[in-house]
Each structure stands twice: as structure tokens, then as C-alpha cells.
Specification:
The structure is a homodimer of 355-residue chains.
Chain A (H helix, E strand, L loop, with lengths): L5 E2 L23 E8 L3 E9 L3 E3 L4 H5 L2 E3 L2 E5 L5 E4 L1 H15 L6 H14 L11 E10 L11 E11 L10 E5 L17 H16 L4 E5 L7 E4 L2 E7 L2 E4 L10 H12 L3 E4 L4 H10 L2 E8 L3 E10 L2 E4 L7 H14 L10 E3 L1
Parallel strand pairs in A: 1-3, 10-11, 10-17, 14-15
Antiparallel strand pairs in A: 2-3, 2-9, 5-8, 6-7, 6-8, 7-19, 8-9, 11-12, 12-13, 13-14, 13-16, 16-17, 17-18
The complex binds pyridoxal-5'-phosphate (2 copies).
The site of one pyridoxal-5'-phosphate has 13 residues of chain A, from β13, α5 and β16.
């Protein structure tokens, strides 16, 4: 792509947040990337501009019909001051997978990555340095036609915003309690479950709120057809270590193909651990637990990297996994992935990309 | 509710569009209604302000997580110059049904209707008068926290915008060709299908685009579990006249409870026609067609009121219904409903509300 990214720098740089009290997704950096799409003209006018409010007609299609996609990845600062991205091409490719399902025009993934890097270079000082902190990157695309009527929009905006975020685990990794959802359904084959699109998250809220009220951190979804196959957890894919075979639900169209999921599979394989992607029922998990062979369970995702599951509750049947403690594989995957991300562990896979 | 609606009138009234070339959802009136919600404070600051662009942070939750709902209804001008709404309480109640599913705080339906009436009174001159034209009303609620993270927003905006729209049928009612979707799924029980929320429409786009390419106007959805029960069409509910019994899919949580659907059922009952709400398979329809008992099929919705179905295509099996012509019941329902809406037919049901 021969597009040139114009840069307009802010006149009012903001104060950086106190690194010790960083939360998640509340503070944004000084600049953002914005690119427009117009039918017949393609993607055009890529620019880096000061971060700030944008004007939208109340009739803008995104408010009414949800035609949009997004991504989430992070930039990490190493001890030596280098800035690393973790498999960013994967996120860019996933944008196009989501785009295709939502009838949003394809982006040039190389150019998008170039734009992302240019933005991060400019915002380098916003990347926090303390252990476990990072710069969260949110690329997203929204339909912008000022039009009421159900059809794909003819105009879009592709935006990238950045948010310095705190360490996910401030007091050591604590396994979470997960509620297995038997009533609400997040996605079904033939639907939009595999796309990273707003509708999936809107759909998940009610179940999550109800699980929280019952004292559970997150929800484990079951498939929408038979309500017996395990799908994914909130914003994480799931893995189960049964008798030293690690099993994760196969990608059947209703769950997101997580970058951390893929990396976990590769890592385990490189260690000689048996990994299987297949359909797995919630019953099988409970049976394995009863037999004492459910050794570990954990979620994988960009935010937490690895989140051990200490407890499952399914139809009032509560099981504790690994005594509610983090398992050895979970620990090892966590240490290795974060080690690679922060440049402390050799990156044999060529996963990191320096900005 | 004791809230007072403040009114700020526009300084730059727009020119009204040429009534003979009105489309749908492209032109908006001079004013809109806006009300804010803040956690702990409730809904507050209802106001009528000039229609125009609004400012949103790019981190606004609606862009990322799709927590939103909307409605669609119309205001009609009678020959005598009266302005009528058709069962607007139903739409306000449906807002709260959608809100509940999407974890959006309830609205006061009486107050919302009062606000709607106040806005329409102010915009009275924007209601077109030609046969079949009307003022389309779009209330909607969007999550407005500037925050990245999956949880219900703590702030919202409830907005009502108005758009003068042309007659749906400019050259007489033409039955449509419908593609029965066997691959993509719109909704599943346990999901959000019954709510009027952006995600459902985003999800439907790809199937609709593909059906259009094959020469079909709309898609008939099948249930997400067994892919055999008939659900609804695009933005319409569906009815089938089989052997003089009118059958429409029952409300099982995956389709919208249409106001036109409900009115059609009431109307048919008042005429002594047998109406049944139940699950109906696509196979049953094809069997009835083969036996010659599938007399009529039609969709119901606010936009078209009644849309006769002239052709169905299911797995390459194409059937013609009623010779591709509008059936007698469809005609009668259309004439009666539009008659009531425009004040030409006596409203025995108390459906219309004068503004
Ligand atoms: C629904 C869902 N599943 C899984 C994941 C994990 O994906 P990743 O490892 O790419 O962050 C995410 C987060 O992006 C998600 O939103
Ligand atoms: C999905 C869906 N089904 C059915 C309908 C018909 O509903 P109503 O008759 O209330 O317009 C609509 C339109 O609002 C819709 O969007």
C-alpha cells in the first residue's frame, strides 16, 4: 500500500498516569490512528491525530446495527528499553476474518501493522515499565454511514487507540471460580461467535452479571445446540489437563481463535506435551474430576495470559480443581509466554516483533 | 416521573425534502430528544435539542461491546391533519424487554412516550402527507462509558431521532422472493434474538448480502438448534395460511415479538379466522405446498406493514406461493392496518394514539 500516514501532534500532552495505580482501559494516550473507508475509493487518509472525542451523527449505523469489529493486543517494554509486540500479524489477520463475517471491507494487514508501529513509536513514553504492566492496543472498525436501514455500510472508520495498563496479577496468580452457563447461550455454529465483534460481548453481559452475583468471576459457555460441549470463558479460551493430555475445544466457528490459545498449543507441543484440539463435553470434565484425572484447567487470553481455574460450578455441582491452586503447566506456560513477551526468555518461535 | 423536558430550538431549520422522492432513513428532522443515565443518579436531563452530530470518545463502550437497543415505529398524518401513533406503548415496553436482556437500566415508559409526543409535536410539519408516507421514529439507547473492558456501562444515552419516509409500496404491493437460510444462524434460544439490539442485525448482514446476490430480497431464518423450524424474515415476522388456518411461529426467545405480528393476530381473530402460534417446520410448509394447501405467506413489520411472500427457495427447492400474487387475507390485513394507522378505518381496538 502506498498510502502515507499524516501525523498531527498534540499541542496539549497529557500527564502520564501514576504507574503504581494503573487499571485497565481507562486512560488513553495522546494520539490515535484513524483511517477512513469510502465505497469506490477504498481505505484512505490514514492519519495519526491527537486522541480525543470525535463527532458522529446520531443516525450513524454503528449505533443501530452493530456492524463493527475490534482487536486487543499489547506492547511490552523490555528491561533494555526495547518495545516488543507479540504476534501482531495474528491480530491483523483476525481483523480480516472478523471483517469477512461482518461484511466490512478487508484491510491491508501489512499497512495496518505499519500504522500500529508508527503510533506506538510516537507514544513510546506511554508504555509503563513496571513488572507486568504494558500498553494495551485496541484497533477497531465501525460502520459510519448516517443511515437507518439494515445493509452493510458504505463508509467505515478504522481506529487504533492505546491504553497503559497495570499488571493483571498484582498479588500473585489466583485461580478463578467459574460458573458453567446452562441457560444463556453466547454463540452457535453458523453465527458470529468466531468473530471479534461487539454483538458477542453484548450478548454475554447478562450471564456474566448473574454469575458475578453468585460469586463467580467468569462464565464458561457451552455450545448453543446441545449445551454440552465446552466452548470458552469470557474473553479467554480454555484448556484442560486430563491425565497429562492437554485438551482444548477445537475451533468449530462459535469460539474465538485466540492468539494466546495458539501460542499455548505450540509451546506445549515444543515441550513434548500431548495437546489435543477436539470437542469436549462438560460431563467428561466432571467424570475426569471424579476419577482424579482432571489435573489442571486454565484460560488463555491477552489480558491475563494464563488464568488458572480453581473451581467450576455446573448445575449446582461444584468441583475444585488442583486444590484451587495454580498447576505446574499453567505456571510454566505463564512464565514462558510472559518471559518471551518481555524479552526475558529466548524467543525460539519468532513471535515477538520489535517496534 | 417529574422530569421536565428542556427545549432548545434550532436556529437553522432545514429545508424539508421533496415529498415525492422520499426514501428511507436518510433525512432527519430539525430536532432530537436526548436523555442521559448515570449510575446512582438514574435517567436525567431530558432535552429536545437541534438534530446534529454528537461527540463521543473513541473508547466509548458502544463502539466496542455493542451494549445498545433500539426501536422503530411511525407517526402518520390523517387527511384531517391529525397525527397518529400506532400502539406506541408496545414499543416502549419492548425497549424495557430489550434493556433487561442487555443489562441496560429500565426506562419509564410513560415518560418516554411523553417525550416522544413532545418531539413529534415540535416536528409536526416534518410529517409527510402523501399516501403511504410517514414519519419514522427511532428511539435508541447506547452505552457511553469511555472504557475498555467487558461489563455493563455505568452511563447511557437515550436518543430519539425522526426521519420522514416515503411510501413502502410505490407501485402496488409486489410479493417478494425469500431465501431460506440453511447455513447462517441469526439467533438461538438462550441468546439475544428476542431483543432489538444491534448485534442481531450485524449478525444477519452476510446472509442477506448473499441472498441478494442470488436474486432474493430477504432471508427466512431457521432455528439455530435443529435448523428446521421457521423463525422470521429480515425485519419481519412471518405468517402462513395453510388450509385457511393462519400459522405464525410462537415466541420462543429467538425472534422479535413484532407489534405488527401482534396486531395481525388480533385482527384475524376479530374476523373469526383461525390463528395459531406454534412451532412450524420448513418441511411442513413445503409439504403443504405440495398438497396445494399453502394458500398464502406474508411478513409483518412496521416498515412494510404486510409483505406477501411470492417465492421460497430452500436448499435449491423453489416453490411459488399463490402464483406469486398477493393473497386475499394479506390484502385485507394490509388495508385494515394501514386504514387504522391513517385514521381512515374505525379503530375498534384502541390502537392509535393521537399526538
Ligand atoms: C471471546 C474471546 N475468546 C478468547 C479470547 C482470547 O484471545 P487472545 O488470546 O487472542 O487474546 C478473547 C480475547 O481476545 C476473547 O474476547
Ligand atoms: C428482527 C425483526 N423481526 C420482526 C420485526 C417486526 O416488528 P414490528 O412489527 O414491531 O415492526 C422487526 C422490526 O421491527 C425486526 O427487526
Amino acid at each position: 500500500m502506498s498510502l502515507v500516514i499524516s501525523v498531527e501532534k498534540t499541542q496539549n500532552p497529557k500527564e502520564k498516569p501514576d504507574p503504581s495505580s494503573l487499571g485497565f482501559g481507562q486512560v488513553f494516550t495522546d494520539h490515535m490512528f484513524v483511517m477512513d473507508y469510502t465505497e469506490g475509493k477504498g481505505w484512505h487518509d490514514p492519519k495519526i491525530v491527537p486522541y480525543g472525542p470525535m463527532e458522529f451523527e446520531p443516525s450513524t449505523m454503528i449505533f443501530h446495527y452493530g456492524q463493527a469489529i475490534f482487536e486487543g493486543l499489547k506492547a511490552y517494554k523490555t528491561k533494555e528499553g526495547k518495545v516488543l509486540l507479540f504476534r501482531p500479524q495474528k491480530n491483523m489477520e483476525r481483523i480480516n476474518i472478523s471483517n469477512e463475517r461482518l461484511c466490512i471491507p478487508e484491510i491491508d494487514t501489512d499497512f495496518a501493522l505499519e500504522a500500529l508501529k508508527a503510533l506506538i513509536k510516537l507514544e513510546k513514553d506511554w508504555i509503563p515499565e513496571a513488572e507486568g504492566t504494558s500498553l494495551y492496543i485496541r484497533p477497531f472498525i465501525i460502520a459510519t454511514d448516517p443511515f437507518l436501514g439494515v445493509r452493510p455500510s458504505l463508509t467505515y472508520k478504522f481506529i487504533i487507540i492505546l491504553s497503559p495498563v497495570g499488571a493483571y496479577y498484582k498479588e500473585g496468580i489466583n485461580p478463578v471460580k467459574i460458573y458453567v452457563e446452562s441457560d444463556y447461550v453466547r454463540a452457535v455454529r453458523g453465527g458470529i461467535g468466531y468473530a471479534k465483534t461487539p454483538g458477542n460481548y453484548a450478548c454475554s453481559l447478562k450471564s456474566q452479571v448473574e454469575a458475578n452475583k453468585k460469586g463467580y468471576t467468569q462464565v464458561l459457555w457451552l455450545d448453543g445446540v446441545e449445551k454440552k460441549y465446552v466452548e470458552e470463558v469470557g474473553t479467554m479460551n480454555v484448556f484442560f489437563n486430563i491425565d497429562n493430555e492437554v485438551i482444548t475445544p477445537s475451533l468449530e466457528g462459535s469460539i474465538l481463535a485466540g492468539v494466546t490459545r495458539d501460542s499455548t498449543i505450540e509451546l506445549l507441543k515444543s515441550w513434548g506435551v500431548k495437546v489435543t484440539e477436539r470437542k469436549i463435553t462438560i460431563e467428561e470434565l466432571y467424570d475426569a474430576h471424579a476419577k482424579g484425572t482432571l489435573i489442571e484447567a486454565f484460560g488463555t487470553g491477552t489480558a491475563a495470559v494464563i488464568s488458572p481455574i480453581g473451581e467450576l460450578s455446573w448445575n449446582d455441582n461444584v468441583i475444585k480443581i488442583n486444590d484451587g491452586k495454580i498447576g505446574s503447566l499453567s505456571s510454566k506456560i505463564y512464565e514462558t509466554l510472559t518471559g518471551i513477551q518481555y524479552g526475558k526468555v529466548e524467543d525460539k518461535f519468532g513471535w515477538t516483533v520489535e517496534v
